[in-house]
Amino acid sequence: MPELAPKPPKKTIAVSMGDPGGIGPEVLVKALADRSRRSAARYIIQGSTSALQDAATHAGVTPFWWQIPLGASASASESHDVIVIDHGGHDFAHKPTKANGTLSHSYVTEAVKMCLEGQADALVTAPISKESWKLAGKMRHPGHTELLGELFRAKRVGMFFESDRLRVILATVHIPLLDIRNALTIGKVFDAIDLGHDACRQMGIAEPRIAVCGLNPHAGENGLMGDEESRLIEPAIEHAQRNGIDARGPFPADTIFNQAIAGKFDLVVAMYHDQGLIPIKLLAWDSAVNVTCGLPIWRTSPDHGTAFDIAGTNRADAGSMASAIDLAVRLA
Predict the structure, then answer these.
(1) How far apart are CA 295 and CA 91, in angstroms?
(2) pTM
(3) Which of 29, 53, 61, 151 has a CA-to-CA distance to 194 between 20 and 30 Å?
(4) Are residues 242 and 217 in the same domain?
């Protein structure tokens, strides 16, 4: 009788718990309470056990993780599917605080360290509070995307959103609306097109069809409402086309998303944060996943924030976190 081929080893997913006073602990506990999801990979959570324990108690979930202290090696616990590296702390306030910011920043940097050292195949991050980071003196970076780009020494990074109804990537990320006109460049638009194209291909779309939004109403109306379309966006699209990318536009943002939803395009390139985030969150609030493109590993995250207003009440929907974990496992 022929011998059965050995099963491939499980992928290891590094997980950052997010702000301990937010809903990160709750959505992590709820998502990983699913035994089939737990068995799909090995998860090492950088977080605080007391926050996870509180979330599990409120959700009626029996703790399923193995706890080790910060600084200890996870290798001794390889038989466990979920390992929590405990950074300490307890009685976390459900609001932005210096303590929460210090811990959540530490969770991220330690999870990234695991990836850089080859101990993890992908990274999942729960939501952080930018205000908590500011209180902790960690506001050199306005969010995960920028911090990860620096820690991984990536030349380019992109904020990409994946859902079953719509995909979006942003040309600019966490900058004030009034600064977009000065921050937007041909390079930023091209990078979003190029990174989004590569991400779609790695996700199984052989020839991605990409729609590019204009910046101004009606995509500028041939220069009547601004010149960014002709001066910045059109040259970026033409450069992408010369590189073999099926990119078209610029299109008015108030209509192009409907065409993408109807199946005409695989990806929409938005010029700024809310232009792309409003439609994706309206259509797929409970299932969309934030993906960072351009890193040497895949990083996924829920598409929502810390939701301090419902933290600790067992009212958080874990759908987006579950999708983020599943996508990380699949891509890894």
Answers:
(1) 35
(2) 0.90
(3) 151
(4) yes
> Nearest 5 degrees, angle CA 24-CA 39-CA 45?
35
pLDDT at 184 over 60: yes
Residue pair 287/319 in contact by the 8 Å Cβ criterion = yes
**Domain identity same for 198 and 284:** yes
Q: How many residues does the chain have?
A: 332
Q: Which amino acid is at 158?
A: G
- CB-CB neighbours of 262 under 10 Å: 8
- Give the chain's mean pLDDT: 92
Domain hosting 217: range is 159-293
Q: When comparing pLDDT for 242 and 143, which is higher?
A: 242
Q: Who's near 72: CB < 8 A, 6+ residues apart?
A: 85
65 found inside a domain: yes
**Same-domain check for residues 246 and 192:** yes
Give the position of tokens 């859902």. 163
Amino acid symbol at 95? K
In a domain, 1, yes or no: no
Residues 271 and 193 in one domain: yes
Whole-number Å distance between alpha carbons of 81 and 85: 13
Token pair in block for residue 111: 């999870």
* Number of domains comprising the chain: 2
Amino acid in the structure at residue 37: R
Chain segment 257-306, per-residue pLDDT in tens: 999 999 999 999 999 999 999 999 999 988 899 999 999 999 999 989 99
323 pLDDT more than 70: yes
E strands, 99-167, in order: 122-125, 158-162
Residue 4: its pLDDT value, please?
54
Radius of gyration (Cα) for the chain, nearest Å? 21
Same domain flag for 307 and 282: no
Tokens of 175: 């900058």
Residue 7 is predicted with a pLDDT of 59
Provide mean pLDDT across the span 12-21.
97
Q: Select the more confidently predicted residue: 139 or 240.
A: 240
User: CA 85 → CA 17, 45, 68, 75, distances in Å?
Assistant: 10, 6, 5, 12
